[in-house]
Structures are given as structure tokens and as C-alpha cells.
User: What shape does this take?
Amino acid sequence: MPERRFADLKLLAMDMDSTLITIECIDELGALAGKQAEVAAVTAQAMRGEIDYPESLRRRVAAIAGLPETSLLQVYEDRLGLTPGAEVLLAKCREHGVQVLLVSGGFTFFTERLKARLGIDHTISNVLEVKGGKLSGALIGEIVDADAKARKFLEVMGSLKARKEETVAIGDGANDLKMMAEAGLSVAFRAKPVVRAQAGCALNWCGLDAVVNLFD
Assistant: This one.
């Protein structure tokens, strides 16, 4: 591998669920709806690439229909934790002027709060429909799938006039692979086997701060 310096990067993109944060938000919402096993099983199939991501997301969102909108804040405040090393990695990005893109097949409710809290530059995620103070079981707008993640990555990369070798993408599931393929360095973080097999490197046990150690 040619010499790489973290300070030379312009863009670092990462997935949210089970990457920047320790949970899968949809699974936690499923638990609150009394459908934890059903929802988690579909999540696992989607992350392994066994079923179509948009279809899997529609099924899971339909399963949590009727949950009060306040359940979203309950998950954010009581169950969502940052992955060890996340704040160190983000501080390193700020130190060197590396822009951060948070991509998620999850939900805007969570990405926008993390963006404000952590000083993240760009996000893309799905919007849950709420009617009468409850989740309707539907989504608003286009679903953020593997293609949408890759498009957003290339869009931000273009706006920064970044070359491929000046970018990193970190993910754990099959729906991250297209984005990761566009990056100069792709990092499988505690990822499914299908992702580890295609990534430039895999971090299986350490924290997110270990990404910094991949550079000279």
C-alpha cells in the first residue's frame, strides 16, 4: 500500500447503525413495539445481503406502525451509545479538516441529532412518516439504499474536489458496499463476512479510532 497520511484526507464517510453507534435503531424500535425478534431477524438478513434492502426496510418499518413518536427520543436518549473510539476519530477529522459524511439506511431523527451533537458535516438517511403522533408504518420519499449511499458519497466527494485516494468509507453491512467501492480506502468495521471479503481492510475487535492507525 502506498504511504497514506490521515492529514491528506478530504472525506471520511461512515455508516451509522452498528458503526458510529453501537445499536441498530430499527431493532430497538422493534423491541419497544414487542416485535424485537421479528425485526432483528430481517435486519440481519439485509446486512448479510440475503434480501433486498428497500424491501427489508419497508417490512421492518411496517412492523413498528403504531409506536408513539416519543419512542424515537426514548431510543436516542436511553439506548443509543457511540461506538468506542468514535469521538477520537471525529476529533482527528476536525483537527485535519477532513469532512465527515454520515450515511444511514436508518432514520433522519437519529442522524440529524448526531450531526448537531458531534459536528458532522453531511448526512443522508430515511424519513419516518408520523401521523397523529404515531409512526404510520411508512417512509417519506426515496429509500436510502446502497445506491443512494454511493451517490451521496460521490456527490460530497465532487463538491470537495477530492480524489479517490483522499477518501475513506467505513461500513458493516451489504448496503455499504457500493459506497465503500468508491473510496480510496474501504474499512469493514465489525462487519458481516460479505463486507469483510470485499473491503480494503477489516477492523474486527478494536474501536473506531483504529481507523487513524491505518495511516502513516
